[in-house]
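Possible regression after last week's pipeline update?

I re-ran a chain I had predicted before the update to compare outputs. Posting the input and the new output here so someone can diff against the archived version. Not blocking, just want to make sure nothing changed silently.
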Amino acid sequence: MTPKSEADRELTVREKRILYFTIHNYIRANEPIGSRTISKAFDFDMSPATVRNICSDLEEWGYLGQPHTSAGRQPTDKGYRYYINELLKIQEIAARQRERIVREYNEKLASLDDILQKTARLMADVSGHTAVVLYPDRRHVEISRLSLMLDRPDFKDMGQLREAMGVLEEPARLGEIFRPEPGGPDEVDVKLGRELNQPELQEFGVIKAGYHVDDARQGSLGLVGPKRMPYGRLIALVGAVKDAVNSTFRRMRGVR
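New output (post-update):
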C-alpha cells in the first residue's frame, strides 16, 4: 500500500476514474461500492487486483471510507470535495425546467417578498430538496419544504436529524451558513460536512449562490440536503435560478 505521506499528491488518471465511478454511483445508489462492482465496470481495462489496490490507496489517502470492514467504499468529505472541484461534470438544466424558471419570473412580481418567496418554492419544487433564500438584511430567511429531510434514506438516526432540523429552523444559524461572501464572486458554491462549521450538520451539504437586489443589497439562495446529492444537476439549477432572480431585480430597477 502506498504510504500515507503521498496522500496529497496528484491522482493518476486511473485513480481519478475509480474515485469518480465510486462517488458517482454511491450518490445514485446510496450504497457503498465494492471493488468487484468497479472491476466489472472497467472490465478488461484494469485487473481486479489493480482495482483493489487503488481502492485501498484512495482509502488510505482519505478520499474513501468503509462503514465496516466487509462493506464497499463510500466518499469522505475529502473525497466529495475532490469530486466537486476536480471531477464533476456540471449538467445542462433540463429544457422543461429552464422553461418553467423563465415562465415563473415573467409573471408580475410586485415586491421583494414576492420574488424571494417564489424563489424558495420554485427551487424546492424543481430540485426535490429543501430550499433556502437569505434576504439582504441577513435576518429574514425563507425556507421551503424542510419536511423533505424526513424522507431522505441518508438520515437513519432520527435524534440527529431532529437536531439538524432545529439548526435549519434558526434564522440566525441558517443566515450564517448562507451568508454571501462580501464582495465575492456570484458563482455557485458548495459547502459540506465540517466546512459548514455546524456540529449538527456534519452529514449535510449546501449549494448556494449570491444574488443582487441592487448595487448595495445582496442576499443568497440555494439548497440544503444530505451530502449525497446529485451535484452536477443541482449546481446547474441553483445557477439558473440565481441568474433569473438577478435579471428580475434588474428589470424592476429599469436596467437591461
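Follow-up from reviewer: compared with the archived run. The beta strands are 64-65, 74-75, 130-134, 141-144, 189-192, 204-212, 218-226. Marking as no regression found.
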